[in-house]
Amino acid sequence: MTHSKLFYLLASTAITALFTACASKPAEINVIPQPSHMTRGKGYVHLKGDNLTTRIDTTLTNPEGYRLTADKGRVEVVGGSEAGLYYGLQTLDQLRDGTDYVPVVTIEDAPRFPWRGMHLDVSRHFFSKDFIKKYIDMLAYHRINTFHWHLTDGIGWRLEIDKYPLLTQKAAWRKVKDAKSPWLGLELSDESRRDSSDTYGGYYTKEDVREIVAYAKERHITIIPEIEMPGHSEAATFAYPEYACPTAKPGSGIYCPGREETFTFLTDILDEVIELFPDAPYIHIGGDEVGKEQWSQCPLCQQRKRTEGLKDEHELQSYFVHRIEEHLNAKGKAMIGYDEILEGGLAPNATVMSWTGFQGGIKSANAGHDVIMVPLDYVYFDHYQGQNPCEPQAWGGYNGVKRVYEFEPVRPEIAPDKVHHVIGGQANLWTESIRTPEHVEYMLLPRLAALSEALWSDTTARDWKRFERKLDRQYDRYAEQGWNYAESAFTPYITEQRFNDDGSLTIRLATELDGYPIYYTLDGTTPTDESTLYADSIVIDGPARLTALTYRNGSAVGCVLEVPYLLNKATRAAVTYATPYSPAYTGGGDSALVDNRYAFKRGDDKAWQGFEKTDMELTLDLGSVQSVSGVVLRFLQHIASTSVMLPTGVTIWTSTDGNQYKAVADWGIEPDTDSEVMIRSFDIPFGEAQDARFVRIRATNMGTLPEGHPRAGGSAWIFTDEVVVY
Prior knowledge:
Belongs to the glycosyl hydrolase 20 family. By secondary structure, the chain is of the alpha/beta class.
């Protein structure tokens, strides 16, 4: 590649053109990821165009490494290869930071890990060829050198295969059970389309793939394709049911290892995949979450076990994986699979991608297998990155930018002589809840910056406080590129909440990124930078609605923290339960619904109190007879991912003595079939004020999940987090 071509690519990957800056000087050095060795001198070099030299020196130890020197009026960038030069010029651009000046500096830098990966699932929702190129640009900007392209899974097969055209033509997944259920909110056509506006449909032609592969290669990114097997294959087993177990339903999603023709089908597909990705050293087969009940009931699978001397279905999966690996090895490719390929014995040359945690990777590395660490509790980017209901729908738990920055692939349990088997790490972005390119970008940024430094920089070069300061500038860079980044790290959240002896409430706030002013109000209005400035804590001694908001450079950033109904009449009331809450979802115990702690919309938020298949019925003792006018209740619903449903109705009674109760409200709740996660708040007035010491509440559970629900016939849950009495 010529240097002129390299400069063009730097511009095309959204890095500022080198000689179009203003004449000011960069305020400070803000390079992400942090270089391994950097020595700052005094002053600046004025970059004029004729005082920059670049060259390749193959004697550099790491071909992805570079050396950058700015001194005595000149700048030189030396790369160990075209890739190293590419990364050196990226660093130069960040040093300039939009100006014509480079600080006097000497940098010697190289990545810590050879595998610096980022994943994208296009099977759950399809994203256009143009967006995939933009995604690759974002990866290149952050020095990610491996794009794990998740092309098939469950309901979506996104890759054209000549020998088996029904994989894309039949649109099999559209006919999978419940695909048009009102409970899932989907109304889909029956014809397969490649229209990128239809994120449920679509696939990439072979021409598309070749174009994307070439585009990535120019940016020093290798694409690793994933073709899921033996599970997560509903679309394929619907289009070609002859490769599923004969006892399974159409679209069961699991290939039959008892059929010899199954292996012919899959190796035919893999041969076409290999042809499309000639530079990929690996093919990813997934191998995770394989339900083996079908195999245990399949006579062909049982015969295979007897023939091969396999003792159980775990060993049957291992047999399946071994056969696929043998074919890939014969074609010059290595195989990657998730943790579950360890079950029944790991294939001899397989690389393990450890996602359920670190243990699978630790075990594999110690056994001499290469490992890529992808622990979901650190680097699953489909998890929430903010603790506020304003966050767009996500999946699972909470992985903020600091959590990603703390990701360390090399674990102490790995023997020192086996550490080299940890070839790197990556983050995964699954798209069950992500339907638009803008949402993908939001989930990616700024966490990708944290991942970049975690995988590139040596442990001695990593420092969270310094990264925080650099990230402040990185947000502006994202804005300059027009990328949709998340401001979640600026959103205030509650770190401590306690009741004082005098009945007042003390609340402490924080943001994930320190150093930014937080303003708040106690009347529910949106704060401005003229509202009360948060200092150390907030003491609340009467009914209040706390709102808080962070400001950066004089403008509001992030979301508003809203905590309603603090110190209401139910606060710290004695609670007795007629129906017990689940021991798995206590919310904090008997006082959970009167402690002024509100849950986020994640189902695993510990503030939720859950009731399985039973009504929620409880009585509040307010401590004295007082005038009450109504109740506010909050409930969670998430049809697509859980069995948590809104109640069908609420009935409320009041009493002055705890013996005689009067019905004061009977509130029906219409079902909401939206599959998205939601928190619904119900303000239930009594019609007229009541004198009461006791308030009894019953929220009626749906009981059994209805037909059309993804878990039809199962037990419905009620999740609630707080009871308010006014």
